[in-house]
């Protein structure tokens, strides 16, 4: 199974994917932010990577198809993908989001949970469809919110759960793809 990853940020989930997958499973990483921290992580692990503007989805599709990608993981890709990419890889694109979807879709989900005085939030891995953070849920995990939590503390607690949940969800989806039950 060949994985492609799309990143916009620091790349901690990307590195977690690299550390949890087989050595040659991640075959390409595309990033859309010039100073993306994931670039250094890709270089460190010898993963082919390139900058592509989020507007150039034809190039993204071509790069992933050329690399033979079976599954695309959005690991901090901070843009909505178009129907063109979704149609090119149907039920083959997954995303990780820092809330218990369907609650708090889109940006600032952690802040929304804090501002709402929720007692827990969480993390969700879901299939990508044309609705923002609206695809079928693959895996979820609750994360408690404690009195005194601020954005930084809660973000770190959520990230620790992301590092556990995302590799498990990837394995789940890979199994479904390999057995034809996806």
Shape: globular
Determine the CATH topology: Rossmann fold
Strand content: 15-25%
Q: Helical region count? A: 6
Mean pLDDT reading: 96
Give the tally of β-strands: 7
Report the end-to-end length measured between terminal Cα atoms: 14 Å
**Rg over alpha carbons:** 16 Å
Element order: H for helix, E for strand: EHEHEHEHEHEEH
How many separate structural domains?
Answer: 1
In CATH's first tier, which class applies? Answer: Alpha Beta
Percent helix, as a range, is 25-40%
CATH architecture call: 3-Layer(aba) Sandwich
What structural category do the secondary elements indicate?
A: alpha/beta
Characterise the protein shown here.
The chain is α/β, with parallel strands linked by helices. The chain has 6 helices and 7 strands; from the N terminus they run E-H-E-H-E-H-E-H-E-H-E-E-H. The chain has helices at residues 12-20, 38-45, 57-66, 83-88, 109-115, 151-179; strands at 3-7, 26-31, 49-51, 71-74, 93-97, 120-127, 137-144. It has a 7-stranded mixed beta sheet with strand order 3-2-1-4-5-6-7, with helices on both faces.
Fold topology:
Layout: E1 3-7, H1 12-20, E2 26-31, H2 38-45, E3 49-51, H3 57-66, E4 71-74, H4 83-88, E5 93-97, H5 109-115, E6 120-127, E7 137-144, H6 151-179
Parallel strand pairs: 1-2, 1-4, 2-3, 4-5
Antiparallel strand pairs: 5-6, 6-7
Helix pairs in contact: 1-2, 1-6
């Amino acid at each position: 199974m060949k994985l492609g990853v799309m990143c916009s940020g620091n790349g901690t989930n990307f590195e977690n994917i690299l550390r949890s997958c087989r050595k040659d499973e991640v075959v390409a990483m595309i990033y859309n932010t010039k100073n993306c921290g994931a670039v250094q992580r890709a270089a460190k692990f010898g993963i082919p990577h390139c900058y592509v503007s989020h507007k150039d989805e034809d190039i993204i599709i071509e790069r992933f198809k050329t690399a033979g990608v079976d599954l695309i993981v959005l690991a901090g890709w901070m843009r909505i993908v178009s129907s063109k990419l979704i149609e090119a890889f149907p039920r083959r694109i997954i995303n990780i989001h820092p809330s218990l979807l369907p609650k708090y879709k889109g940006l600032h989900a952690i802040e929304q949970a804090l501002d709402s005085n929720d007692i827990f939030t969480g993390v969700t891995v879901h299939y990508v469809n044309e609705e923002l953070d609206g695809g079928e849920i693959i895996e979820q995990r609750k994360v408690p919110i404690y009195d005194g939590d601020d954005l930084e503390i809660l973000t770190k607690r959520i990230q620790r759960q992301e590092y556990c949940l995302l590799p498990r969800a990837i394995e789940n989806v890979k199994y479904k793809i390999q057995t034809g039950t996806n």
